[in-house]
């Protein structure tokens, strides 16, 4: 996955662009947009068989492309979206927009925009999720995550932009897409008067799966989400967590190749979340699923996702593998330093440590100082401080966890609603 | 070289391809089957069935005394079987099975439709349902078909009940012509109920809360029943004032306009159709247009019409009823297709 938009705080000139497009023999000449569903599937299959290590070595490259990505991103990325943004000079064709899409991309969005009247719910979103990846969409409530998922499924029509899921346009071939995509909606519900099993049976029938094939599969799924005992109770009696697990089973009934999970861990108790994540991880590994999940609960997603994207006010402000984002956009190390006493005493000591570039006050905590260095200077800094007779009470490298990344990329803050 | 995982994937790809061929394009059928099961198992079906059965059987029971008393006179009388449905008893304010059904059927139509879409939405099942490989219109189509089916089942049960009581208690055996008239009445009634069902579905699309949709639905029904027959002639009278000083033709023109306006109402259309279907002597459901027609209608000998003649008389009414139903359903359909899944 990659985001072709420049993160607001990002400046990393001179990073070489590594192209991630790799022509495949016999496939490169075919325009993706016209691939029929089965063919697309086969194509992806054969790709994978040929190059199992593909995802690994191209992963970081995508993140590098963040600021120097294809020309399309630069064209009008002149700042945050305002309502009176001048019309685009030239409308790009679909082929142009999809020119940089890697062959094994399963979910692709280019300049995807959704407007409700004057309000822009999703703003020129670029997204690529490759086969077998787990991608986490992070952002506060109302940032446009659900709208994005709905557009990817063809349940909502995009105002502008291009979407390809398993090589198909969900707006024009919704059925073919929905046949391959399992979806767990935000706040999933079931028919209260039917048992959990009956609910799944109904989904199987809607997918045209014959009963003989569906029954053992449903049994297996119910067992996997640990609803074996409750399977024949009315869904109306289920707890929220049980509904959520049934929702996962429901999304898997059609044996999808892609899973889209909207807030999958919401309202589940911590041990339940752990179990759910284990289940998802196992499913992803066993069935080679591509997963797009959205969440506003960070820690849960952290362990599961290969890639994350931060959503804020309809825009994907940063995306890439977690470590890449964590490393910081300018490849410097930031340390939070606190001493027993006034923090001002830190400044002179820290500046004397080799490698330290600057010392600044902390944004939120005036007892702390931020030391920016070209490398990790934690050990020499600690030594220098103690030699200077200062007692170190806090020393921590920033950017190492998701919460901070989130704070960095999502200015509204954790609980701030986008609007 | 094919690894086991590879093989599994290929098998699944093939399975998907097969499923694609099987094309659940009949998604509406799956939905209709599920909805129908839901309806038949629901408490509201049972309650409405009991209410309808009481409504049908009680007038018949009351009237059966009169019928047996007059049986010697009535034997040989044409269309005696029809009398079971249409004859009202003195002790029940002249209410017959047919009038009772006409009163209750809109209720049934609304009852099976008012929570069609909005309950899916509030239950959180709509987005899950629409994420399955079905067309979006399958949902509303399936629900409409299921509603019609359950209403048809209910009315058929009712008609059989009435006929059975007639046969067992009164010894009235129907002729083929009479049976086909009752069937025609059933079809017309289902059509009329479909109008209300489509109306209720429309409300379920537009109004988020099931309870408020039900209230608005019943309000609409009550309004049409009570005020329709008051307001529509009033409007006609406003446009074509009946001048007391005018000629008989003026007066008749005003009356005709009033009747025409009334026929905007599906209730009046249905009433016309029932009159023609259930009474073989009905040879004119429209008002007379001028003095000449009036005179000739007075001079006409009462005669029995065959069913096809009766159908011919109310053909415009039938077409209008179908058109109203289709328009109502089309509105619900279009609004549903244009609606956001989430909101």
Describe this structure in words.
- The complex is a heterodimer of chains A (419) and B (343).
- Chain A has 15 helices and 13 strands.
- By secondary structure, chain A is α/β, with parallel strands linked by helices.
- A 6-stranded mixed beta sheet of chain A has the order 5-6-7-3-8-9, with helices on both faces. A 4-stranded antiparallel beta sheet of chain A has the order 11-12-10-13, with helices on one face.
- Chain A starts with 36 loop residues before the first helix and ends in a 10-residue tail after the last helix.
- Chain B is mainly alpha-helical and 343 residues long.
- Chain B is 77% helix and 0% strand.
- Chain B is built from 15 helices and no strands.
- In chain B, helix 8 (136-170) packs antiparallel against helix 15 (315-338), helix 9 packs across helix 10 and helix 9 (176-206) runs parallel beside helix 15 (315-338).
- Chain B starts with a helix and ends in a 5-residue tail after the last helix.
- The model of chain B has no long low-confidence stretch (mean pLDDT 81).
- Chain A binds chain B through residues 37-38, 41-42, 45, 49, 146-147, 150, 153, 155-156, 174-176, 178-183, 185-193, 202-203, 205-209, 247, 250, 254-255, 288, and chain B through 3, 5-6, 9-10, 12-13, 15-17, 19-20, 22-24, 27, 30-31, 34, 38, 41, 123-125, 127-135, 340-342.
């Amino acid at each position: 996955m990659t985001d072709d938009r420049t993160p607001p705080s990002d400046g990393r000139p001179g990073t070489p662009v590594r192209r991630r497009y790799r022509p495949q023999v016999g496939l490169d000449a075919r325009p993706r947009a016209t691939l029929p569903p089965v063919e697309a599937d086969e194509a992806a299959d054969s790709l994978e068989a040929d190059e199992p290590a593909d995802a690994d070595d191209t992963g970081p490259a995508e993140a590098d492309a963040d600021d120097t990505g294809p020309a399309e991103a630069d064209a009008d990325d002149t700042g945050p979206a305002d309502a009176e943004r001048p019309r685009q000079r030239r409308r790009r064709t679909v082929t142009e927009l999809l020119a940089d899409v890697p062959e094994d991309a399963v979910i692709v969005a280019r300049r995807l925009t959704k407007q409700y009247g004057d309000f822009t719910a999703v703003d020129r979103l670029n997204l690529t999720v490759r086969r077998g990846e787990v991608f986490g969409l992070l952002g506060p409530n109302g940032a446009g995550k659900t709208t994005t998922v709905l557009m990817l499924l063809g349940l909502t029509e995009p105002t502008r932009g291009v979407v390809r899921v398993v090589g198909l346009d969900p707006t024009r071939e919704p059925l073919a897409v929905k046949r391959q995509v399992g979806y767990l909606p935000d706040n999933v519900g079931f028919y209260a008067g039917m048992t959990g099993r009956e609910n799944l049976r109904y989904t199987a029938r809607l997918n045209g799966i014959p009963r003989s094939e569906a029954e053992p599969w449903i049994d297996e799924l119910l067992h996997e989400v640990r609803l074996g005992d409750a399977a024949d109770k009315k869904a109306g009696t289920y707890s929220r967590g049980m509904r959520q697990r049934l929702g996962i089973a429901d999304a898997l009934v059609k044996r999808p190749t892609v899973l889209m999970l909207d807030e999958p861990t919401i309202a589940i108790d911590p041990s339940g979340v752990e179990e759910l994540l284990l289940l998802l991880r196992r499913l992803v590994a066993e069935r080679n699923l591509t997963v797009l999940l959205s969440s506003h609960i960070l820690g849960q997603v952290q362990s599961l996702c290969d890639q994350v994207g931060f959503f804020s006010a309809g825009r994907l402000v940063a995306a890439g593998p977690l470590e890449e984002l964590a490393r910081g956009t300018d490849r410097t190390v930031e340390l939070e330093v606190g001493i027993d006493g006034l923090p001002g005493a830190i400044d002179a000591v820290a500046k004397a440590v080799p490698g330290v570039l600057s010392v600044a006050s902390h944004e939120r905590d005036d007892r702390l100082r931020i030391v920016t260095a070209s490398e990790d200077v934690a050990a020499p800094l600690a030594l220098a401080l103690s030699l200077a007779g200062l007692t170190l009470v806090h020393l921590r490298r920033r950017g190492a966890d998701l919460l901070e990344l989130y704070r960095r990329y999502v200015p509204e803050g954790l609980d701030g609603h986008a609007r | 070289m094919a690894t086991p995982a590879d093989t599994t994937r290929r098998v699944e790809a093939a399975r998907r391809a097969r499923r694609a061929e099987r094309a659940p394009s009949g998604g509406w059928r799956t939905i209709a089957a599920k909805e129908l099961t839901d309806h038949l198992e629901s408490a509201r079906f049972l309650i409405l069935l009991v209410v309808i059965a009481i409504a049908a059987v009680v007038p018949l029971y009351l009237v059966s005394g009169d019928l047996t008393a007059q049986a010697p006179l009535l034997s040989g009388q044409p269309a005696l079987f029809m009398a079971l449905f249409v004859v009202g008893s003195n002790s029940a304010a002249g209410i017959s099975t047919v009038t009772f059904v006409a009163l209750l059927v809109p209720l049934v139509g609304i009852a099976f439709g008012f929570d069609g879409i909005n309950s899916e939405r509030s239950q959180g099942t709509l987005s899950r349902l629409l994420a399955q490989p079905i067309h979006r219109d399958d949902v509303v189509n399936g629900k409409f078909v299921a509603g019609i089916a359950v209403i048809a089942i209910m009315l058929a049960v009712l008609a059989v009940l009435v006929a059975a009581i007639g046969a067992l208690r009164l010894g009235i055996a129907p002729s083929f012509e009479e049976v086909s008239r009752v069937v025609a009445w059933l079809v017309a009634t289902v059509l009329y109920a479909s109008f209300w069902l489509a109306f209720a579905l429309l409300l379920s699309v537009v109004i988020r809360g099931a309870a408020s949709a039900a209230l608005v639905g019943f309000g609409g029904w009550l309004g049409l029943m009570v005020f329709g027959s008051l307001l529509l002639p009033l409007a006609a009278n406003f446009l074509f004032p009946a001048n007391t000083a005018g000629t008989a033709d003026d007066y008749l023109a005003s009356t005709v306009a009033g009747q025409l306006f009334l026929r905007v109402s599906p209730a009046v259309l249905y009433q016309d159709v029932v009159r023609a279907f259930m009474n073989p002597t009905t040879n004119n459901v429209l008002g007379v247009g001028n003095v000449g027609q009036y005179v000739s209608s007075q001079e006409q000998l009462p005669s029995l019409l065959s069913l096809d003649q009766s159908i011919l008389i109310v053909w415009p009414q039938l077409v209008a009823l179908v058109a109203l139903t289709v328009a109502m359903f089309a509105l619900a359909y279009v609004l549903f297709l244009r609606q956001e899944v989430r909101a």
